[in-house]
Each structure stands twice: as C-alpha cells, then as structure tokens.
C-alpha cells in the first residue's frame, strides 16, 4: 500500500512538472512591447530602464534609446520608465495582445528637483498598423455580458462560422465522440488549430475539440480568434486559430460567484421552468500563495439539467 502511494505521488509530480514545462514551450500566449526613450528634445537616452513591475519584466535602452521587452503574458499593465536625472513616467492601462508588438515611446523631461511622478493613461489604437490579418480578441468582461450559457458558444458569434454539436444532439451515431464540430468558411473542423494557453487541445483522432476541454466562464481571461492570415508558427491550421487564455491569481485574494436557476420561475407557476429544471453555478477563487511569487486561480462550474430537451415526442410534453 505504501508503494502504491509513492508511485501515485511520483506520477502526479511528473504530470505537473511536465505541464509546467510544456506551457512555456508553445507560442501564442504572449506579446511584445518595444519603443524608444528620449528627452523632450528628442535626444535618445541610453541606459533608461523600462519595466513592468507587476510581473517583474523589463529592459534597458541601448545607445539609440531603443528597448525591447519580450514574452509578456497577455493582459493590461502599467509600464514605467526611469533614469537618473530625469522624471519618472508611467503609462497606465497598456494592453498586451497575443502575438502582437506594441510600440510605446517615452519622452521624459529633466528632473531639476524632486517632483511628482507623471502618469499617462494608455489608450488602445482603433487600427493596429502592424496587423496584416483579421483578428478578434474578446476579454472576460465582454464575455460575461454576452447572452451565452456555454463558453464554446463564442464560436457561433463569429462571422463565417457554423457549429454542429454531437452527444445529445446533432450528428447521428457520433454521440460517443463527444465533439463539437466548428466549420469556418466551408473548411473542415480538423483545419482549425484549437489551443489553450498556447497548447494544442485538438482531438487527434476526429479533429474537433472534445468535451473534456471545456472551460467555465470564470476560467477564461481572453479569447483570441483568427480566421486566416496567421503566422507560419501555426503551420497545421488552414481555416482558423482559436486560443483560450486562462486566468491566474494576483497579489490580492479575489472571488467570483454566478448562479442561474429556473427554480424561481417554477415556484411562480411556470410549467416551462418546472420542466426545464435548469441550475447553473460558476465560482472562482484566486490570490497569492504562501510562497512569494506564486499565485493560484481555481474555478469550477456545476450544471444540473433535469430535462435537457423537451420535444414533442418526449414522455414529458409542455402544453401551454
């Protein structure tokens, strides 16, 4: 019995280590910030420090004042520039997008005496000049306001997409596969690169996305959808690239709770809500761990559908 426990522990440890290593090998999970640091007269400032304090990433400007920060996880950050003898400046709300380079230039004045820090609010450009293809990015705030109950319904909201479901409905004789076939502009479902945090999750046999890789609403930080024109790193994708970015914990403890139910309508006398029997609970919790620098995020979804479908020839029929 003791030997079994040790083996189980070793297998579990190997799984988590492998998962951590693989998550750092795949592309498509981060972005880049680059630019130039000058004084107010346009002269370059070599040696200026540009950094993102929240994630401890930064760079030092070269002799021409140019800097480059690579491998920045997607999200919104405050970017700060510092140099001795010059005023400290921070641009707030800088949004980093997957596989895109953001140009951020600084022009800082000489600090003759100790003054206040200059803070600038960053704004997203309406048109990205460096983008050569169509790309859609949906953040968690926008996802929470959409009229959907399944996170995979985001595919059906995109232009040129047709979704075919299996299991309880959709493709005959395909219930055991547990697939959701997504067709983009007439392409096959196997021509889409499905990824989660840059790791491929496409079904290796049937080519679709399996039900075992579903995410709940509170687990998604950002959804990236690119129907064509993608980089060579997605060589096996011919129709589209789909990438889900999961949430991670921050410096403070946070929690979210969302509950939907048809019980209230049933209690008020609605026969439809009584037959539907729908109950859905989403909850998430995240924050720092006891070890400095490590954070966690946990989320789950519990859905109870006592009557998933109420059709004409079912045993239970809704008759108004």
From TrEMBL:
Pfam families per record: CarboxypepD_reg
Record Gene3D superfamilies: Carboxypeptidase-like, regulatory domain, TonB-dependent receptor, plug domain
Annotated SUPFAM superfamilies: Carboxypeptidase regulatory domain-like, Porins
Ranges in coiled-coil conformation: none
Protein name: Uncharacterized protein
Species of origin: marine metagenome
